[in-house]
Amino acid sequence: MDLNIDDRWLYCPKKNKDAEKRIFIFPHAGGTAQGYKKWAEVLFERNNVEVCIVQLPGRAERMHEEHVVHMPSLVNGLLESIQHFLDKPYICFGHSLGCLVCFELMKEIRSKSLRMAELMILSAKRAPHLPRQYDKISSQSKLDLVRTLKTFDGTPSFILDDDDLLNILLPIMRNDFLLDESYIYNDSESLDIPLMILGADKDLLASQSELLAWEKHTLNKFNYKIYSGSHFYIFEHEDEILNLMSEVINENHI
């Protein structure tokens, strides 16, 4: 089956060699690149862009690859691929765990003197220098982990009620949570990239104050927007988020 995979790390559903700009999407814990395919298609139709979605090891067509639970190792692998896609101006969108991956990738890109993002849109993740406010999830029992996922309200009930599907999902979730839990923030100079922070008013994993603390990490413009909803508000407000992304593209932020 042709999934239009450019390589292991990037899924670009609508290839556009004439695109003036590129968007990179960094999915949430447990997420796949294919889960954001609709976003890629909508943004492609509305704007002259190419959208590439990050695909981490251990899921989808990379199911048989070993999970990477060490952020520097993951970023190094991703950079090896994504550096070939930095020939055009680009923005980044990350949700939850994807924010950390995006943030650390930008720091590594800066260290290599490669083209930086023109804008980062980061969603539903506390600022990286802040301590985690919840217990470790990666080591929870199966029953407790399923209960936790239900509280996040981001996994369809038909998956949580199906043992066969859970046997596929839970190892992915555990390893992604371990990637997040083992993350060590190393203080460094703030990024000179405009930063837009998005969040939800009922998100138990990222309070408004934790979201606003991201301002510390940019030397450039900072703004934020809070939506109604919980941790996966982006799918409840999908049209609004896509409209927002189209607006920032067309306002020549990039």
3D architecture notes:
The chain is α/β, with parallel strands linked by helices. It has a single domain (10-132, 186-253), classed as 3-Layer(aba) Sandwich (Rossmann fold). 38% of the residues lie in helices and 15% in strands. It has nine helices and seven strands. Helix 2 (71-82) packs across helix 3. Mean pLDDT is 94; it is low at 1-6.
Q: State the helical fraction.
A: 25-40%
Instruction: Briefly note the structural class of the backbone.
Output: alpha/beta
Count the helices. How many? 9
What radius of gyration results from the CA coordinates? 17 Å
The beta-strand count equals 7
Specify the CATH architecture. 3-Layer(aba) Sandwich
- % residues in beta strands: 5-15%
Report the principal-axis shape.
globular
Largest sheet: 7 strands, mixed
Strand order of the main beta sheet, please? Answer: 1-3-2-4-5-6-7
CATH topology type: Rossmann fold
GO molecular function, one term: oxidoreductase activity
EC number: 1.1.-.-
Keywords: Oxidoreductase
Protein name: Linear gramicidin dehydrogenase LgrE
Output the keywords.
AB_hydrolase_fold; oxidoreductase; oxidoreductase activity; alpha/beta; 254 residues; Thioesterase; Rossmann fold; TEII; disordered N terminus
